[in-house]
């Protein structure tokens, strides 16, 4: 089993969650514990790799280096997942400076810089978060929310019943896939 974790991920970075998707699996269970989770997981062939948008010594943190310990947070890096102070206050899951994790997945040839950005509406940088493009689930949830505010596009006026499937097909006709919509609703 492979875990690809990202210390920049704020999804499971809450202080009371501390999910392995952000922090990885630590070598020790705590200061007063004799448990070693990584040693225990070795029997089930558990491997982990770290992906991060962070740069160290002017270069990206490479994925696929030889197995060994890797700093979860180096000196002068953000204390909080996501890299922002406000995000950190919300997440409340600080990362200790100098904490190392065992990255035990096999070496990749060649090691490579992770591509942490792509497909966003606004692309991020190593020090600033991007903005995700809404996926179909987000769009459907928003359309079903009567309090959601949208920049609605007027299609046309019509009296009488409307076949939304036909309207949808008419709207999408000739448009590039990224300009099409899968959802439409009739204004009451």
Automatic annotation (TrEMBL):
It comes from Pseudomonas caricapapayae. This is Uncharacterized protein.
């Amino acid at each position: 089993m492979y875990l690809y974790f990202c210390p920049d991920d704020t999804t499971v970075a809450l202080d009371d969650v501390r999910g392995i998707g952000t922090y990885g699996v630590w070598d020790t269970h705590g200061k007063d514990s004799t448990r070693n989770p990584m040693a225990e997981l070795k029997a089930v062939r558990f491997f982990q790799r770290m992906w991060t948008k962070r740069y160290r010594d002017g270069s990206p943190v490479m994925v696929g280096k030889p197995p060994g310990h890797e700093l979860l947070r180096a000196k002068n890096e953000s204390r909080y997942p996501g890299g922002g102070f406000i995000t950190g206050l919300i997440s409340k899951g600080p990362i200790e400076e100098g904490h190392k994790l065992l990255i035990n997945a096999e070496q990749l040839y060649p090691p490579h810089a992770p591509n942490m950005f792509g497909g966003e509406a606004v692309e991020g940088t190593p020090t600033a978060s991007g903005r995700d493009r809404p996926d179909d689930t987000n769009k459907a949830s928003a359309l079903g929310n009567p309090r959601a505010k949208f920049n609605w596009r007027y299609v046309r006026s019509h009296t009488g019943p409307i076949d939304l499937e036909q309207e949808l097909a008419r709207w999408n006709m000739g448009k590039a896939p990224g300009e099409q919509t899968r959802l439409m609703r009739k204004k009451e």
